[in-house]
């Protein structure tokens, strides 16, 4: 808690984790309650959940392929905004169909649907896209946010988020729902308030993403510049070492050449003097 309170960067990152855990819990539990109301038969419920799992796998695989392109072209901020934006848009549609479904009944009957069935389908889309965005964008963006931090803050910040924020996000949604059920008697009666709480949490999540992006981008640029400097320094040092080595080699060769030249001169002088000495001795 001390680490979370001391660093704004880690605090914004923790807000992302807690907000996702609470939001997905609020949406999933409310959606499954409506799903059981729409498909009371165990066979129909199992069949729908099988189709839901298949669609989730296909959407996740597709988003995994697109996630890298989104990160490369649009940057960290856009990639981190997609998950809360998906939850916000689909959440508004899901809770609107639940709360204001009766006036829409004549319109839904033209399409062969009821407001409850439409809410189930919208809630399924919400869970599919939110989970696929979580695995393909939210998790990579969260791990990338640790990169610009120093080693000490990486260890302490990640430990604080994993120890405090992950359980808080998972249990926070359940605690909110239990409080609402105790206060209003049932989950159906507390649905409007759950929708309002979800709206507040997602807006807080978006604010934390914007704040974290304003801090992450400068730190990421500094990290890239530091890596470039570290890459260029070994090249410069190796070039300097190679230059000094060539210079010493040239000096060695020049000294050897001068030494060879002096020895040749000495040998020539000795050869020229020996005949003169031999002639004098003969005389």
UniProtKB/TrEMBL annotation:
Cellular component aspect of the GO annotation: chloroplast membrane
Membrane topology of this protein: Multi-pass membrane protein
InterPro entries to which the protein is assigned, alphabetical: ADP_ATP_car_bac_type
Keyword Chloroplast attributed: yes
A GO molecular-function annotation: ATP:ADP antiporter activity
Primary site of residence: membrane
Keywords for the protein's UniProt record, in alphabetical order: ATP-binding, Chloroplast, Membrane, Nucleotide-binding, Plastid, Transmembrane, Transmembrane helix, Transport
Chain intervals for the UniProt region annotation (Disordered): 231-283
Compartment(s) of residence: Membrane; Plastid, Chloroplast membrane
Residue stretches spanning the membrane: 13-31, 52-71, 77-99, 111-129, 193-212
Entry superkingdom: Eukaryota
Protein name per its UniProtKB record: ADP,ATP carrier protein
Classification of source organism: Eukaryota, Viridiplantae, Streptophyta, Embryophyta, Tracheophyta
This protein's encoding gene: gb06564
């Amino acid at each position: 808690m001390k680490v979370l309170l001391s660093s704004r960067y880690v605090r914004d990152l923790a807000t992302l984790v807690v907000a996702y855990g609470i939001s997905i819990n609020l949406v999933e539990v409310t959606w499954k309650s409506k799903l059981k109301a729409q498909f009371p038969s165990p066979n129909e419920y199992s069949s729908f959940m099988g189709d839901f799992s298949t669609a989730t796998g296909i959407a996740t695989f597709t988003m995994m392929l697109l996630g890298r392109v989104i990160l490369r072209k649009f940057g960290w901020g856009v990639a981190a905004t997609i998950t809360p934006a998906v939850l916000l848009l689909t959440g508004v549609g899901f809770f609107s169909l639940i709360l204001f479904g009766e006036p829409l009944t004549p319109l839904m009957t033209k399409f062969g649907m009821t407001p409850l069935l439409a809410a189930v389908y919208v809630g399924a889309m919400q869970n599919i896209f939110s989970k696929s965005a979580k695995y393909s964008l939210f998790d990579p963006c969260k791990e990338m946010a640790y990169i610009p931090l120093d080693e000490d803050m990486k260890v302490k910040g990640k430990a604080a988020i994993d120890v405090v924020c992950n359980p808080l996000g998972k249990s926070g949604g359940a605690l909110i729902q239990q409080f609402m059920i105790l206060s209003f008697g049932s989950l159906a009666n507390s649905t409007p308030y759950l929708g309002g709480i979800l709206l507040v949490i997602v807006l807080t999540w978006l604010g934390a993403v914007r704040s974290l992006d304003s801090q992450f981008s400068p730190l990421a640029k500094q990290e890239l510049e530091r890596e470039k400097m570290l890459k260029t320094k070994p090249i410069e040092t190796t070039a300097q070492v190679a230059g000094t080595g060539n210079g010493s080699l040239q000096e060695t060769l020049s000294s050897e050449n001068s030494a060879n030249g002096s020895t040749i001169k000495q040998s020539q002088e000795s050869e020229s003097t020996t005949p003169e000495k031999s002639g004098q001795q003969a005389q």
